[in-house]
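User: My instructor asked us to take a sequence, write out its structure as tokens, and then describe one feature of it. I'm not sure where to start. Here is the sequence I was given:
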Amino acid sequence: MSILEKFSLKDKVAIVTGASTGLGQGMCIGLAEAGANIVGIDYVDSPETEKLVTELGRKFLSIKSNLITIHKEGLIDLVKQAVDHFGKVDILVNNAGIIRREDSLDFSEQNWDDVMNINVKTVFFFSQAVANQFIQQGSGGKIISIASMLSYQGGIRVPSYTASKSGVKGITMTMANEWAKYGINCNAIAPGYMATNNTAALRDDEKRAGEILERIPAGRWGKPSDVAGAAVFLASDNANYINGFTLAVDGGWLGR
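Assistant: Let's start with the prediction itself. The structure tokens for your sequence are:
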């Protein structure tokens, strides 16, 4: 098989959380372009993503679920729904996440718990459920979680987000240590400053947005397609010997 053929995800089944917009939508499209069928999970319907995926000739299963309040049993059921529909799962992309901004001196317990629940607790237990499915299938698989620049930095006014994304980087290494022997590759992507809903407030702040752009060597905000390329790579056979690594897709931010 050639190097280009190894990028193919033909007839693979990928679960993508937070699929309705932004990075999640971009990764759904990228994975579909590479040949995968998609299970898109979000707390709202994903009609636009479904349309874009099916126009590529791939299949799309939309599942509505609130990943902030879901428990372990609910995540196992989501995997079951995917398997019942497509017969298997090959890829999990843990993309869904939220951010809450508040001064650390005043940060509320609700803002802490909500962010930690979806950004790190759900990521771990969904990964666990999918890993058990991979082992049952005997086929291995790929788990890709979305980390952040704040997996490496402290940030300002986002203590729970920083804690959660540092946690994503850490549990990615832990899961890789334990699950690589089953042919399961666990890695993460740390997007830089992306033009998505999560950064709308920053991009609307002319002074802060200017400061951010001045530090990005690439001189622009990232796009969902920038992250999609990394996701396709990590989901492909070309990444079979990559385990426990968090790949920065940041326009050079961390190297500045």
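For the description part of your assignment, you could build on this observation: The longest strand covers residues 184-191. Try explaining in your own words what that tells you about the chain.
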